[in-house]
Write a structure and sequence with these properties.
Length: about 100
């Protein structure tokens, strides 16, 4: 299979969507409340944590299912997934949220 065909699989695109949602949650929270650290975690922090943690089993399942079948396409998608995961974690790390 080629890259676009593998990317249509739910275990390939759902982690990417979850990372995008996590970025949007952080951006929305910063836009509304500023980058100041809060004493208590709110709903945005919990949603971000759930999205980030929920990606990991999907990424592992994708690697388990697709790496043996299509190593090049699966490796490219795994790289995209890892970059998306890092992009979603970067604002939280750098803004110390």
């Amino acid at each position: 299979m080629i890259l676009p065909a593998v990317l249509k699989r739910p275990t390939a695109f759902l982690p990417l969507l979850m990372s995008a949602a996590a970025v949007l949650i952080v951006a929305g929270h910063v836009a509304l409340h500023g980058p100041a650290r809060e004493t208590d975690e709110g709903a945005a922090a919990h949603l971000w944590q759930l999205l980030m943690a929920g990606q990991l089993p999907l990424i592992a399942l994708f690697a388990f299912l697709w790496l043996p079948q299509t190593p090049r396409a699966a490796a490219a998608i795994l790289l995209l997934q890892m970059l998306a995961l890092l992009a979603a974690a970067a604002p939280v790390y750098f803004l110390k949220l």
